């Protein structure tokens, strides 16, 4: 997964495809490996983190019926945290665009998701002046 940091888009695409391919035969193993990698590399630049997150999304969507409930729950929580972190990182440069996107998650009369609120809080901390 270290190759996701390669600047060549073809290499990045190959890593994505390899993760998805391996995820077809061993979805839980790949999801756990991706999760562990993201935890160990919490300073990974957001474009590279996105490659891994997209691969995780594809593996989950393709194998949702095969996943153990506890794995799915943990992956979803970790995935949402990682996605929130990506938005906060992008928001350090493009705060208006990120805020615009996150605001679409607010619906009248519906309590916002925990990670939407956490993302707002982290955006405000990272962009406070």
Automatic annotation (TrEMBL):
Q: Name one GO cellular component term.
A: cytoplasm
**Record InterPro entries:** Maestro_heat-like_prot, MROH2B-like_N_HEAT
Q: Which segments constitute the MROH2B-like N-terminal HEAT-repeats domain?
A: 19-127
| Source taxon at top rank | Eukaryota
Q: What Pfam families does UniProt report for this protein, alphabetically? A: HEAT_MROH2B_1st (PF23221)
Q: Which PANTHER family match?
A: MAESTRO HEAT-LIKE REPEAT-CONTAINING PROTEIN FAMILY MEMBER 1 (PTHR23120:SF44), MAESTRO-RELATED HEAT DOMAIN-CONTAINING (PTHR23120)
Q: What is this protein called?
A: Maestro heat-like repeat-containing protein family member 1
């Amino acid at each position: 997964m270290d190759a996701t940091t390669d600047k060549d888009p073809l290499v990045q695409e190959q890593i994505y495809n390899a993760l998805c391919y391996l995820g077809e035969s061993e979805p839980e193993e790949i999801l756990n490996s991706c999760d562990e990698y993201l935890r160990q590399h919490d300073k990974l630049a957001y474009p590279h983190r996105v490659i891994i997150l997209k691969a995780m999304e594809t593996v989950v969507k393709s194998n949702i019926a095969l996943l153990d409930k506890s794995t799915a729950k943990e992956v979803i929580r970790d995935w949402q945290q990682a996605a929130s972190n990506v938005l906060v990182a992008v928001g350090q440069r493009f705060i208006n665009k990120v805020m615009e996107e996150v605001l679409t998650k607010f619906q009248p009369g519906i309590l916002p998701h925990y990670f939407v609120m956490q993302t707002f809080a982290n955006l405000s901390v990272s962009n406070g002046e």
